Amino acid sequence: MEKKILISACLCGDKCRYNGSDVKNDLKFDDKEVLKICPELLGGLGIPRESCEIVDGSAEDVINRTAKIIGISGKDYTNEYLEGMEKAIELVKKHKIEIAYLKQNSPSCGYGKVYDGKFRGKIIEGNGIFAERLKKLGIKIIGI
Ligand code: SF4
Questions:
Q1: How many CB atoms lie within 10 A of CB 38?
Q2: I need a labelling partner for 107 at 20 to 30 A (CA). Which of 28, 123, 141, 142 fits?
């Protein structure tokens, strides 16, 4: 059966967050119908990894290469994030995804809410880069 529902892997209990944790949610699906994705792992980032935020711009700016995704140390991870996003989007197209359940606040999966790029725990309106691409593809997104 084709997979038409996408879910951020950490919401399924995969311990793929930057600090090795998950945010398991109570959503119930038939496993066969759900595609679990962690764009950051697809981009080659490890567990644990640095906490990163979109700095000096929006997700669209990162995709257009006029803003960056930076770690708390100041290291630039933009290339890894963009590579993971592209690989994740390939899977989305292959599986004809129609609806995506995405983890809030992430610079990849965040939908509607992300950190402000100053590493001070402040949330602002905005999307992660993966959510931004999904939105542009017309896929329904539910931020969790
Ligand atoms: S929010 Fe997205 S990128 Fe971050 S750990 Fe979860 S699935 Fe991976």
A1: 23
A2: 28
- Distance from the Cα of residue 70 to its chain's centroid: 15
Q: How confident is the model at residue 28 (pLDDT cuts 50, 70, 90)?
A: confident
Q: Is the pLDDT of residue 13 over 80?
A: yes
pLDDT digits (tens, 9 = 90+) for 38-73: 999 999 999 999 999 999 999 999 999 999 999 999
Domain residue spans of the chain: 5-143
Instruction: Give this prediction's pTM.
Output: 0.96
Residue 16, ligand 1, Cβ within 6 A: yes
Question: 99 with 4: CB under 8 angstroms?
Answer: yes
Pocket test for ligand 1, best of 7, 40, 80 (most atoms within 8 A of CB): 40
Query: Looking at ligand 1, which atom is closest to the CA of residue 40?
Result: 3
